[in-house]
Write a structure and sequence with these properties.
This protein is of the alpha+beta class. The chain has 3 helices and 10 strands. It has helices at residues 4-11, 113-124, 146-162, and strands at residues 19-27, 30-37, 42-50, 53-59, 66-70, 78-87, 93-101, 104-108, 127-132, 137-142. A 10-stranded antiparallel beta sheet has the order 1-2-3-4-5-8-7-6-9-10, with helices on both faces.
Length: 171
């Protein structure tokens, strides 16, 4: 089970309020949660946590899909940098201008077919490798269960769209 600390840490780049979350789906190493921040903003998140490190995909249907990589061992300060992501042994993806804030890396995906291809690789992959701009490994995350979890994330976003304006669309 993924702890509340991971949700709070992951949500810091999305909204500055303490969230209320509930598990909507769990499969292998992944969970999909509905999150409602104190501001009332609902979001869906698919995440995998390994120890204290986490990789998450945030979506709400009205903003770009956001990726977050988190590790308490990182201390980036506040900067922007290019990072590389590689799924299994496929070609690396460069995430240009990723926000690096304290112990997290944030990146918003453009709304295009290339992003869908990237998410498809995540869904079909076994391991995601995060590297800094110099190609040095920062962390590797399991993708076991990501295919079903990304589909569940899509259903969560569809539910948000259908229940727009509800106080808690996950009830």
């Amino acid at each position: 089970m993924i702890g509340a600390a991971a949700i709070m840490s992951c949500g810091q780049g999305i909204a500055a309020a303490q969230p209320k979350s509930q598990v909507l789906y769990a499969h292998r190493a992944w969970e999909v949660r509905g999150v409602v921040f104190e501001s009332g903003a609902p979001m869906c998140v698919a995440l995998v946590q390994l120890g204290e490190a986490a990789f998450s995909i945030w979506a709400d249907g009205s903003r770009p899909i956001s990726l977050q990589f988190y590790s308490p061992g990182w201390a980036f300060g506040e900067t922007m940098s290019d990072v590389e992501v590689q799924v299994d042994t496929r070609e690396e993806w460069t995430l240009g201008g990723a926000d690096m804030f304290r112990n997290a890396v944030f990146f918003s995906l453009p709304s295009d077919d290339v992003s869908l291809q990237f998410l498809g690789q995540i869904a079909d992959g076994m391991t995601l490798h995060l590297r800094n701009g110099a190609g040095e490994n920062l962390y590797s995350y399991t993708l076991s269960g990501s295919n079903a979890s990304i589909r569940a994330l899509g259903r969560c976003v569809d539910a948000l769209r259908a229940r727009a304006g509800d106080d808690d669309p996950f009830d």
